[in-house]
Design a protein that fits this description.
With 121 residues, this protein is an all-alpha fold. It has 4 helices and no strands. It holds the Pfam family DUF6124.
């Protein structure tokens, strides 16, 4: 049987025209984007594009605990002030958040109690 069109030219495999590894990585990223939309949030902090705050790996653990206590104390005051200006459901929500932060404050206090006292140098 005679063909009216010639056979296509012989070419190397697919990997010759495109880098197969790069193509596979791009395809995986695209599939993950659509099939696992929240998976990019689960990566390590170094992968986050908007990393604004960091804790120094050399930071003194006791200093971190003290700073955590101060942060919880500030949050508690802000929430109480906010709750005073709200009514009904929003007020209950603010008070629930306040109670959670108060629980965090109590946990940090317990941690500080178990720490040895710091002496001045």
């Amino acid at each position: 049987m005679f063909k009216a069109t010639p056979n296509p030219p012989k070419t190397d495999s697919f990997s010759a025209t495109l880098d197969a590894k790069k193509f596979r990585e791009a395809a995986d990223r695209a599939l993950d984007h659509y099939l696992k939309p929240n998976s990019h949030h689960l990566h390590a902090p170094k992968d986050r594009a908007m990393q604004m705050f960091t804790v120094s790996p050399k930071a003194n653990p006791q200093a971190i605990t003290i700073q955590t206590y101060e942060t919880f104390s500030s949050v508690n005051i802000l929430l109480l002030d906010l709750a005073e200006s709200l009514e009904d459901k929003p007020r209950h929500l603010a008070m629930a958040i306040y109670q959670l932060s108060e629980m965090g404050l109590l946990l940090v206090e317990k941690t500080l109690e178990s720490e040895p006292a710091v002496t001045g140098v």
